[in-house]
Every structure is written in structure tokens, then in C-alpha cells.
Amino acid sequence: MKKRITLAMLFVVTALFAQEESEKKVSINGSIDAYYQSYLNTSDNLNQSFGTSFADRSGFALGMANVIASYHGKKTGVVADLVFGPRGIDAVGGDNDIFVNQLYAYWNASENITLTLGRFNTYLGYEVISPTGNFNYSTSYLFSNGPFSHLGLKADFDLGNDVSLMLAIMNATDVYDNMTGDYAFGAQLGFAGQFLNLYYDNEDVLGFEIDYTGGFDLSEDVFLGINGAYQTSEDAGFYGVALYPQLATSETFSLGLRGEIFGMHAKNVDDLPNVLGLTLTGSYTIEDLTIKPEIRLDSWSNDMPYLDADSNASDKLAAFTLAAIYTF
């Protein structure tokens, strides 16, 4: 009898262990991307670009290889997101071959509360580092001037009725070795897919930023994304707004426009230049491969940051880009 009970208990323990293990899921996914770019109103050999992050090389160029390994249990998990290539290097600066995009652990403390500790991509803005998360292949000025990632602790709260709240304490944006003992604070209030984001650090690395990110389905085939932000640090900063109308013409092809107005401000300085950026992107999907032809035109108000084909100063720059993105 005792032997039977022992065997029964062993069976139960084994079954419970197997059930617990089955609830844990390990996954590996990611993407690779590359592109060709040529300027339409100037020469490709003048070593100039739009001044935004990524996709700033002429001719054939690499984006990045992104490998994301995640391990999910019933209440806890970890994510290791590694990047290889120029796009990741541009996001962090320097010349490292491998860039740790994200590296964090999380705990679902309850059905409505999740705690995350480590390095995670920013909650500010409409666009992200990975090209798989953006409709346009090139990136906006708002994205390029805001934070890319944070290192710290955040708490996400599901308040019900499509309302969410996030609170965070972090190192100052893109600062990973905190030698000063100063910290940044972040918050996000969400409602039905619309998000109001706040950021503050007293080191004036970024200073203070308020950001709105959202979007609306205007019909079954038309979506409008919106991003607006204002940032100030000491006596200077930036502001801007971007609209992202997108039209799905079929199951495999969509067309999207990014229209952005971006400017700088500074105390006791008037008439600083601003830029109007117009980017038209097509997105054609073949299984896990997405091909994106793109035309971009940026025009500055009272500045001449570019060179035309005759090497004369110009306030406009236009380019054609063809990108290929493969997800796995």
C-alpha cells in the first residue's frame, strides 16, 4: 500500500512538473533588412543625408540583423534582443558589432500589474528602432531626436475599460552607466490606443518631454497615425507633429504617407529653422518578405543644410529608397 501511495505521489508530482514546464514557452524571432538609396536632386557622392536616424547611406547598404530570444513562464519571463549591423550601431553610437537593444525580465505580479526591470525600448513616440515596427523605412525627426531606449524599472497597470497606466524610474535616457546618482522619471496614460507620454530627467540629458501617440481606423482600409511632441532641456529643445495616413489596397500591398513638421526652439533666439518632411512609402508583402519602395522630400524653412548637384547650398533634399525586410 505504501509503495502504491509513493508511486501515486510521484506520478502527481511528475504531472504537475510537466504541466508547469508546458506553460513556459521559449521563442526565437527577429528580422534582417537591407536597402538601396539614391538622391534625386543631388549627387550620391557628396556625403550628405537627411540627418535622421538610419537609412542615411547612398548606394547599397545594410540595415541590421535582429535576433530576439524570449522565455515566458506563467508569471515571469525574460527577453534578450540583440542587434548586429549599422542600424543598431547608429541607435547607440560607437562602433560595436553587437548592440543590446533590449534585455529585461518581467513579473506579472497580478492580472493587472506587470513589473519590468532592465533595458527596454522607449515608450515615447510613434516609431521604433526595428524596421518591422514602422510603416516607413526611413525615420522621422521626432523619433531621431527623442530617446531610443531606457534602463530601469517600470510598472504597467491595466485599469480596465481600455485604460492603462505606466510609471517608471530609470537612468537618464540612453545612459547605461549611472555615475552621478541622478535618475529619470517616466509615465504613460493610455486609453483605447491613444497614449499621453511624459519624461523628465534633472541631468538635462533630455530634460522634459511630453508626447502624444495614437491612431484611428477611419475605415476598414484606411488608418491614420498621429504623433506630436514638445521637448525642452535648459533653454533649448524641439517640437513637432507627424501624421501617418495609410491605405491598404489589397491583402499584400499598402501605401502610406508620413507628413512631418519639426522645429527647434531656444531661449532668446528667434526664427530658428523648421523642416517639412514628406515620405511616401509602399509596402508589398510576399510571405515573410516585405519590399518597401520609398520617396522622401525634406524642405527647410530658412536654412540651407544640403548641397545640390552643383555643390551649391540647398534647402531641399529628395531621395528614392528601396528596402527589403525579412522577418522570421
| Total DSSP E strands | 18
Order of helices and strands: HEEEHEEHEEEEEEEEEEEEE
Query: What's the helical proportion of residues?
Result: 10-25%
- Biggest sheet character: 16 strands, antiparallel, barrel
Care to give the gist of this entry?
By secondary structure, the chain is mainly β. Helix content is 10%, strand content 56%.
Word description of this protein:
There is one protein chain. The chain has 328 residues and is mostly beta strands. It has helices at 2-22, 86-92, 141-145; strands at 25-39, 59-72, 76-84, 98-108, 113-121, 149-160, 163-170, 184-191, 194-201, 208-217, 222-233, 236-248, 253-266, 274-286, 289-300, 306-307, 313-314, 316-327. The chain is built from three helices and 18 strands. A hairpin with a 4-residue loop joins strand 10 and strand 11 (222-233). The longest helix is centred in the first third of the chain and has 21 residues, at 2-22.
Indicate the topology.
Layout lengths: L1 H21 L2 E15 L19 E14 L3 E9 L1 H7 L5 E11 L4 E9 L19 H5 L3 E12 L2 E8 L13 E8 L2 E8 L6 E10 L4 E12 L2 E13 L4 E14 L7 E13 L2 E12 L5 E2 L5 E2 L1 E12 L1
Antiparallel strand pairs: 1-2, 1-18, 2-3, 3-4, 4-5, 5-6, 6-7, 7-8, 8-9, 9-10, 10-11, 11-12, 12-13, 13-14, 14-15, 15-18, 16-17
Keywords:
two-stranded antiparallel sheet, 16-stranded antiparallel beta barrel, mainly beta, disordered N terminus, 10% helix, 328 residues
